[in-house]
Amino acid sequence: MTSFTEENYLKAIFHLCENKNGLAVSTNELAEITQTRAASVSDMLRRLSEKELILYKKYQGVTLTEEGKSIALKIIRKHRLWEVFLVEKLGFGWDEIHEIAEELEHIDSKVLTERLDNFLGNPKFDPHGDPIPDEKGNMPSQVSFKLSEAVINTELVMLGVSEDSAPFLQHLDKLSLHLGAKLRVLDVSGYDQSLHIEINKAGTIHISKEVACSILVSKK
Ligand SMILES: [Zn+2]
Question: What pLDDT, in 10s, does the model give residues 127-186?
């Protein structure tokens, strides 16, 4: 059995390793993301290491064992499935669901998770466009890149966001930027790299480089 906190650490280590292409995560990086003191992080790492869920060498950092990775992927699977449920079945906005899913993801019932998955029609992506691992922990692949890296005048589809804070998502709502939107970059300012883009062949808007960096697209 793993506790809430242990599960959150495994998830945090998984996401950090993913962002670093599998490289070991440092205690400081973990302290920052979990907002705890380095000393508490070290205690937790010792405990996870005793349970053989992580490989932890002082001064070298942390990686997940196969068992630890499998638990992290199960938590991520539940988190993302619940997010789909909250948006599609309960009518929540995509900016309102992350905190609730942070709690629901810890419900430890395999039957519930599989029924939820079937009830939702086995979705491959959550409402932020993040891939949902299957019950074996395989992630559906998705070839996406940042809108800020798109070639001008190419037809694009918005697939996801790399930031899921409520203020950011609400900002996208105001701009009518939703998953599935058809986008085309018309022009990039040489001054501040802000972008002039067309949405769904209907209207055009200006967005900052920062916003464009957090929007994931693929070629249509
Ligand atoms: Zn979330």
Answer: 998 999 999 999 888 788 999 999 899 999 999 999 989 999 999 999 999 999 999 999
**Domains of the chain, residue spans:** 4-64, 145-219
* CATH no. of 145-219: 2.30.30.90
State in Å, rounded, how far the first CA of the chain is from the last one.
44
What's the pTM?
A: 0.83
Average pLDDT for 69-74? 96
Phi-psi region of 115 (alpha: psi -120 to 50; beta: other; left: phi over 0): alpha
CA of 59 to the centre of ligand 1 (A): 31
pLDDT of residue 112: 98
Instruction: Name the residue among 11, 136, 137, 140 with its Cα closest to residue 64.
Output: 11
- Ligand 1 centroid – CA 83 distance (Å): 7
Q: What is the pLDDT of residue 23?
A: 82
152 CA → ligand 1 middle, Å = 31
| CA 192 / ligand 1 centre spacing (Å) | 31
CATH architecture of 4-64: Orthogonal Bundle (1.10)
